[in-house]
Specification:
Length: 90
C-alpha cells in the first residue's frame, strides 16, 4: 500500500505474506526510466529482472534499473496475477 511522506511516497507491506501464481495470459512491464514509461516484456524476463535486482543489481542494464523493487500487481477473478508492472523509483 503506498503511503505519502513529506518528500515522496513509499510502499509498506501489510498483513501476512501471500504467494500468488501467474495467470497464463499475464502481461508484464518493466520501467524504462523516470515517470511512467515502461516496456512490455515476457513474464520470464520480468522474473529474471526481479531476481537480478535482489541478488546482483549491477547486472541490470539500461534502460532498466533496480529502483526500489516495487511492483504493482493486478489479480484476475481466480486470484492469479494477470498484470505486473515494475515501478521506477529514485
Amino acid at each position: 500500500m503506498p503511503v505519502c511522506t513529506p518528500n515522496d511516497w513509499i510502499y509498506h507491506g501489510q498483513g501476512k505474506a501471500k504467494y500468488y501464481l501467474f495467470a497464463q495470459d499475464v502481461k508484464a512491464e518493466l520501467a524504462t526510466g523516470s515517470g511512467t514509461s515502461a516496456k512490455s516484456v515476457p513474464v520470464g524476463e520480468l522474473w529474471m529482472h526481479a531476481g537480478d535486482c535482489m541478488t546482483k543489481p549491477g547486472a541490470v542494464k539500461a534502460p532498466y534499473s533496480c529502483s526500489g523493487n516495487i511492483y504493482d500487481i493486478t489479480l484476475d477473478s481466480q486470484g492469479e496475477i494477470n498484470h505486473i508492472k515494475a515501478f521506477w523509483h529514485p
